[in-house]
Design brief:
The structure is a single chain. This protein has about 475 residues and is an alpha/beta fold. The chain folds into two domains: about 5-45 and about 60-75 and about 215-280 and about 415-475, FAD/NAD(P)-binding domain (3-Layer(bba) Sandwich); about 80-210 and about 285-405, Polyamine Oxidase, Chain A, domain 2 (Alpha-Beta Complex). About 35% of the residues lie in helices and about 15% in strands. It has helices at about 10-20, 60-65, 105-110, 110-125, 130-135, 145-155, 160-165, 170-180, 195-205, 215-230, 260-265, 270-280, 315-325, 370-380, 400-405, 420-425, 455-475, and strands spanning about 5, 25-30, 40-45, 50-55, 80, 85-90, 95-100, 210, 235, 250-255, 285-295, 305-310, 335-340, 355-365, 390-395, 440-445. Strands 7-6-12-13-14-11-15 form a seven-stranded mixed sheet, sandwiched between helices. Strands 9-2-1-10-16 form a five-stranded parallel sheet, covered by helices on one side. A hairpin with a 6-residue loop joins strand 3 and strand 4 (about 50-55). Helix 1 packs parallel to helix 10, helix 4 (about 110-125) crosses helix 9 (about 195-205) and helix 11 (about 260-265) crosses helix 12. The chain is globular, with a radius of gyration of 21 Å.
Length: about 475
């Protein structure tokens, strides 16, 4: 029987391990932390019984993942739940851009010309999303399975988000689209900055911006349970610093940032790959504050009170200015803040009338300051009286993210800047983004296409590449 070691037990490492185990490979996952899961973990942070997600929280790409959907993870207790409103982007006048799962409902809420444009932009891609997903959730520089559908989706995705936003005349539609595009941690005037927003909105319209019942850690538990059923094993508390520590195996896959892979492999790594991995650029950081809130958030915009996700960026122009500042290494006075109200779809996360509120702001990489007040003020602006409802809070700075998960260098929860070269090629200039250049060794982290999210596609693609090389070696 062939053997494999997966270094790193985040969603992509576990997905890679499952794919290998399903192919009959005996797999061992080595995780440095005492708990497997990487960004897909949950736990109590403030009040006993109040459940908070550590990082990954809302899962429009996970529920529609071509790989995870075929695993039957519901057998292991994984259940996705949907809020009444998927996302809201409140504005100062008390209105909000509102995202519903239905394209028609979203368009109706936007009204007029903006509603018609929303339909034109999303109806076709949403209808064909299940066929389109295989192309957009993998390496972009390859022959697509559905070239016409990909072109229909991909041409707008090539644009800067600021250009595509001009298709809308009203601020609600522009802000709603801009908030989704800002998930990329990129300035909104850069080419391809529209891509992640379009992907999130399209997959959300197809499957909804769902949460995992019982917290994002449920995704990890289901993957571990399936891997165990397939004969794989997971060892925690094992930090690999040098390839000499690795047990003998036919394949080694790394769910790590490229720089960490270069450190582990040292001189074994071909020089060009080593240079690319060591120069790998990380993007802005996240500053996270979990709140315990009595009675929920008193949003002025009523749809935000029913929304699983709330984007706090103000107008598109204000949001774009904040993202430009962060990318330039400056902390904006009014940062873009993402708010998760997962308890609306999953009430078991609350304790009585005390609810967990998940928030983080975009900040410069390695930001050493305290953004707690900036986040609190951002919420208070759109929900007057919020401060009085806070029971307690827990802060996670960029340095805390990096200490807890070495992939998140400087608080970069995306595992790398998602600029054009890295979106197209991954961490080094090659048509084979999962190959390290060292035979038998593969990169499977979110530094590879299609990038971050608890969808497992980076791991699945890397495992496929590894299995193909294994078959070639066996034949020869």
């Amino acid at each position: 029987m062939s053997t494999a070691v997966v270094v790193g037990g985040g969603p992509n490492g576990l997905a890679a391990a499952v794919r290998l185990a399903r192919a009959g490979v005996r797999v061992t996952v080595l995780e440095a932390a005492e708990e497997v899961g990487g960004g897909a973990r949950s736990g109590e942070a403030i009040v006993p019984g109040l459940l908070h997600d550590h990082c990954s929280a809302v899962h429009p790409m996970t529920i529609g993942s071509p790989f995870l959907r075929g695993l039957g993870l519901e057998r292991f207790g994984l259940e996705f739940r949907l809020p009444e409103v998927d996302c809201a982007h409140p504005l100062d006048d008390g209105t909000a851009g509102v995202l519903y799962r239905s394209v028609a409902a979203t368009a109706t809420a936007l009204g007029g010309a903006d509603g018609r444009r929303w339909r034109q932009l999303f109806e076709g891609p949403v209808a064909g999303y299940d066929r389109l997903a295989a192309d957009i959730m993998g390496p972009l520089l390859r022959l697509p399975r559905h070239p016409l559908r990909l072109a229909r989706f991909g041409l707008p995705a090539l644009l800067p988000a600021s250009v595509l936003a001009r298709a809308f005349s009203g601020e609600r539609a522009r802000a709603l689209f801009g908030g989704a595009a800002a998930h990329a941690f990129r300035p909104l005037h850069r080419p391809l900055s529209a891509a992640i927003g379009l992907g999130l909105l399209t997959s959300g319209h197809r499957y909804g911006w769902a949460v995992a019942a019982g917290g994002s850690g449920a995704i990890t538990r289901a993957l571990v349970a399936l891997l165990t059923e397939l004969g794989g094993t997971v060892e925690t508390g094992v930090r690999v610093r040098d390839a000499a520590q690795l047990p003998a195996a036919d394949l080694v896959l790394y769910d790590l940032a490229p720089g960490a892979v270069a450190d582990i492999l040292g001189d074994r790594l071909p020089p060009r790959a080593a240079r690319a991995y060591r120069r790998f650029r990380h993007g802005p950081g996240a500053f996270k504050v979990d709140f315990a809130v009595e009675g929920g958030v008193p949003w002025t915009a009523e749809p935000a009170r029913r929304a699983g996700t709330v984007h706090l960026g103000g107008t598109f122009a204000e949001l774009a200015a904040a993202e430009r500042a962060v990318a330039a290494g400056r902390m904006p006075r009014r940062p873009f803040v993402l708010v998760g109200q997962q308890y609306l779809a999953d009430p078991q996360r609350s304790v009585g009338d005390i609810h967990p509120l998940w928030t983080y702001a975009h900040v410069p990489n390695g930001y050493p300051g305290d953004a707690t007040e900036a986040i609190t003020a951002r919420i208070e602006r759109f929900a007057p009286g919020f401060r009085e409802r806070i029971i307690g809070l827990a802060v996670r700075r960029p340095a805390d993210f990096a200490a807890d998960n070495p992939n998140f260098v400087g608080g970069d929860i995306m595992t790398g800047a998602k600029d054009v070269p890295r979106l197209l090629l991954g961490p080094r200039p090659t048509l084979h983004p999962y190959a390290t250049g060292l035979p038998g060794h593969y990169l499977c982290s979110a530094a590879t296409p299609p990038g971050p999210g608890a969808h497992g596609m980076c791991g699945a693609h890397a495992a496929e590449a590894a299995l193909a090389s294994l078959r070639n070696r066996t034949r020869s």
